[in-house]
Design brief:
- The protein is mainly alpha-helical.
- Among the domains are: about 100 residues; about 70 residues, no CATH class.
- Helices cover about 70% and strands about 0% of the residues.
- The protein has 10 helices and 2 strands; from the N terminus they run H-H-H-H-E-E-H-H-H-H-H-H.
- A two-stranded antiparallel sheet has the order 1-2.
- Strand 1 and strand 2 form a beta hairpin.
- Helix 6 packs across helix 8 and helix 6 runs antiparallel to helix 10.
- The chain starts with a helix and ends in a 13-residue tail after the last helix.
Amino acid sequence: MPTEASINENDDDAAVLERLATQASDFERARGDATADREQIRTWGIDAFADLGRIRSKAIDLRPTPPGAEPRTIERELLTRMAKAVRIERRVNELFAWAVNPTQKERARGWLYWVVNTLLEGIHGELDVVASGSVSFRFYSGRLEHVRPVRSYLSHPSAVHALRDFRRALGPATARLEEHDEAVDLVTACAVAMLDDLTRRPSFLAQVDECLALYATTHPSDPYPGGAFSKERFPSHVAERLVNNVRRGLQGHTDQDFWDEFGERLRAQRVGPSVEALDRARDDLLVRNFDMQSWLEMQSDVLCSIYDLSAAPLPGSSEP
């Protein structure tokens, strides 16, 4: 529950947002009549992004718990303030992008086509996975298959250089990229910890053996559902399913019938601190990914507007 101190901080946040909105209006007018100082706007933008990032993080940390629950009063106020912060951030972002260097269209094109668009596609895929309750963890690699660090989504050979330039030019405006990777690292660590916890539980191992024996008696023609995994590794395979919050057998997988028959019984093992830690980390990543998706869409809109670019390369063009 938010403390009295945090409520006072929220009052300060309201004043910060009012100040930023007023300053943005002043700079927008100066830009319109060609009296704006680009360096002044850039310096102001760096400070503004820091303030907005702090307000945004506070709203994310105080999201309703459990997911889908009605926000408490203070949370509702924070979420309303968050919406206002996003609107102001768009204005700050547009001013900042204009102040950085509005004459280098080729540079902005690399940001848009190699970085922003590519990351949007990657985040869309992540959202599909994480919103389903899964984290696409694989026990044999200890990694998340479809949830990855930002850099791993960049496919163009020059994209990593465009990303570095994008982050250097926009500075604190790109903080979400680092926050995303930190959230992915935390989910990965929690998934590994949950796998280790489950596969060390005598009750879990005994239940897997019991379910496997029952399955063999009811499926004499195909008594082992583990596919290419050895029986010694089957408990880890089952634990992976629990890490990924699987509820029903996955279509086309060798353990589909096994999971349909015994999944609910095995899901009773999905309890304990390691499970709670993973679920919290996954839900945090989900909220941050929705936020980053909106931010990337805003970057696309701003770059298209400031640098007069199409949202994607046109067919037959020589665009990257």
